[in-house]
Write a structure and sequence with these properties.
two-stranded antiparallel ribbon, mainly alpha
Length: 154
């Protein structure tokens, strides 16, 4: 058997292969926690290539785990809003892309909420592998950029 999230390396450890940085991690680095020391980091870890494949994976995972509450456009009006859960965070609110605005969330803070939950949102740290959490965040940033162009974010 192979643990969830584990990827078999291309060469064995005896030949110098290092364990992959995928899966469910308990590390203390930015990639594993979203934090730099005691503070939420911003941007993306150097272990990731923030490319179209990562964003595409993020879209897939977002649509599976997040869109039901946060909506397909990230406006906080997912299916659950029709059933009385009106508190899902909107990634499209004014100032969401401006680090000087209170509505802004650094990538590390979003990672932490995905991992540990907040408010009515439960934790997804045991369900979504670390790399997929970062992929979701990359897709959220794409949604925010698209909302800004469409006039949703000021």
């Amino acid at each position: 058997t192979v643990p969830m999230g584990f990827e078999v390396p291309e060469k064995p450890a005896a030949e110098g292969a290092k364990p992959p940085v995928f899966g469910f991690s308990n590390g203390l680095d930015f990639y594993s926690t979203g934090k730099v020391g005691d503070f939420y980091g911003d941007g993306f870890p150097t272990e990731l290539a923030a490319d179209a494949k990562l964003i595409e994976r993020g879209q897939q995972r977002y649509n599976i785990y997040c869109s039901v509450c946060h909506g397909t456009s990230g406006n906080g009006k997912g299916v659950t809003s029709s059933y009385g859960i009106l508190t899902a965070y909107s990634f499209q609110q004014p100032g969401a892309l401006d680090p000087a605005n209170a509505a802004y969330r650094p990538t590390g803070a979003i990672f932490d909420v995905i991992t540990h939950g907040k408010g009515l949102m439960g934790p997804y740290g045991g369900v979504i592998p670390v790399r997929d959490r970062w992929a979701i965040i990359a897709y959220i940033r794409t949604l925010q950029d698209a909302g800004k162009v469409a006039g949703g974010i000021q």
